[in-house]
Amino acid sequence: MYPFRALQVRPLLSVAALCLLPWLGVAAFAQDGPALQAKHEALASRLANNPFQRRLALDSSESNSQLSGDIYAVVDHPFAELAALEKPANWCEVLMLHLNTKHCVVKGDIVDVAVGRKFDQPLDQAQRVQFNWGGATARADYMAVHMAAPSGPMSTRDYRIAFEAAPLDAKRSFVHLSYSYGYGTAARLAMQAYLGTIGSDKVGFTAKGRDAKGEPDYIGGVRGVVERNTMRYYLAIDSFLDAPRTEQRDARLAAWFDATERYARQLHETERSDYLAMKQNEYKRLKTTP
Question: Which keywords has UniProt assigned to this entry (predicted)?
Answer without folding.
Answer: Signal
